[in-house]
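User: Fold this; C-alpha cells only.

Assistant: Input:
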Amino acid sequence: PLTIKEKYMRMALQRFPNTPSQFLRKIEGETWKPEDQVLPVFTPLPKPGEDPFCTKDFPPNLGYVARMKDGVIYVYKDAAAADKHQPLNHPGPDLATFIDDMNFLIALIAQGPTKTYTHRRLKFLMSKFNVHEMLNEMEEMKELKKNPHRDFYNCRKVDTHIHAAACMNQKHLLRFIKKSYRVDADRVVHVLKGKEVTLKELFASLNLHPYDLTVDSLDVHAGRQTFQRFDKFNAKYNPVGASELRDLYMKTENHISGEYFATIIKEVASDLEDARYQYAEPRLSIYGCNPNEWAKLSSWFNKHRVFSPHLKWMIQVPRIYDIFRGRNFVPHFGKMLENIFLPVFQATIDPNSNPELSVFLKHVTGFDSVDDESKHSGHMFSTKSPKPEEWDIVKNPSYTYWIYYMYANIAILNQLRKERGMNTFQFRPHCGEAGAVTHLLACFMTADNISHGLNLKKSPVLQYLYYLAQVPIAMSPLSNNSLFLEYNKNPLLEFHKKGLMVSLSTDDPMQFHYTKEPLMEEYAIAAQVFKLSTCDMCEIARNSVLQSGLSAEE
C-alpha cells in the first residue's frame, strides 16, 4: 500500500514522508538519497517593496496545445500532435492501473488477519503514548519551562481548513452589514427583477432595517437543528435567510464586483496579522459551470488586491454536477472538468494570455473537493465506468470518480508547472466526514492531505495506513459537533495519541464560533474537553504548519 501511495504522490509532486521512503528503498534493495524526495513548489513571499500583483517577468508562451481526452487534459506540442494524441512527456495516472491498485487496497481492508494485526498495533501505539505520558509528564513540563520565548500563544498555527465565505464570525458580519448601510445606503448594489436597487431599497424589499438586526435574527449560526441535516446547514449561509444578502456580502461576482466580500476578507486578514502567529487557508469556489469563472475570480482578486502574507488561497470544487446537468448548464461531466482545469493549463502555457489569472495562481496552493459525502451515488467506479465525456446523465458521479479525475488533471498540471518554474498545487479534499470508507481509500492514494477523516474510526487497516504514511488530517471537532458527531465522541484525541498527523481547523467560523479568534477558540475548547497538555497543543500547531501550503522560508 505504501508503494502505491508513494507512486501517486511522486506523480503529482505531492509530499511523502522520508521514513517510509527509506524503508521502502531498503526492501527494494536500493539506497535512499535525500535528493530523491519530491516536494511541491511554493511561491516565496514577496520581498519588502515587491508587488505581489506584478504582471511582469512571466515566462514566454510555449505555444503548446492543451486538449481534453477521456476526462484528462493532456499537453501537446501543437494541434497536429493533439489530433494524433501524442502528448508531451507528462506521465499521468493510468485508469486501469489505478482501479487495480484500488481493488488491491479494498481487498486488503477486508482481510481478517490484516484487521487483527492493525487493530493490535493501534492499541499498542495508544497504550505506549499513555505510558509515556505517565512516566515523562513532569520532565516534559520542566523542559517546557526552560524553553525561552516560546509558549502556546507564540507558536505558529495555521487554520488548515476554512471556507472564505464563512471566514468571519457572526458578530463581525453583523457589524459589517450595519456599517455598510450607514456609509452606502444610497449606493446601487443589486439588481432585483431587472431593476437596479440601492442598499436601502434592498433592505426595504426584505422588510428589514439593519438597525434592528441582531446576531439571532441574522441566523447564520448552526444549532441543534443542523445535526445530520447538511441541507439545513447550507441554508445557514444566507443571512436572515435571504439569498440576496449572501450574494451581496459573500460572493465574488455581483453588482459591486465582490467589493464587500473582499473588504470582509481583508478585515479578517488584518486580524490575523495583528495576532502575528496565526495563518489561514481559505477556500474560494470554482463550480465548473462555465470557463469564465477563473477570469472573474482572478479579476476580483487583483482588483481588490486581496493579498495577505497570512492567507494562503485554495480552490474548492463543489461536487454538484447533477444540479448543473439538470439545469442544462453543462452537456456532460467532461465539460465541467474542462471548465475547471483548462483555463489553468492555458495560463500555465501562456501566462501573458491572462496575466490576472497567472498572478492569482501564484497565490493558490491547492485544490479541494467539497460537498455532502453522505449522498450516495450508487455508481461503482471501475474500468467499465463511462468516460467523463460520455457521462451525460443527470446523476452525480461517485466520490471516487470525482477524486480520480481531479487528481489526474492536477498531476499533469503540476508537472507542466514545475517544468515552467511555477508553483504547483496540492490536492486536499474533504474526506471521511460521512459516507463510505472507500472515500478514505481513494484519498489515501491521491491526496496530499485531507479534511475531517472521522470515518477512519471504522477501519483499523486504513487508520494504520494513514499513520504509516503520516497523511495529514485537518480536523474540525466543533463543525462535526453541529453536523455529524458529538464533540466528546470525536476521535481527535485518539488519533493524536496513536501518532496520526492531526491538526485543528475551524471550517466555518461564521456558523460555529463566537470569538474574534476562532482558531484559538477551537484550540481552547479541544484543550478543555480532551485535557490536552501544552505540549500536545504545540504539537498539533506544528502539524498544522507542516501540512499547510506555507513555503519552507515562511
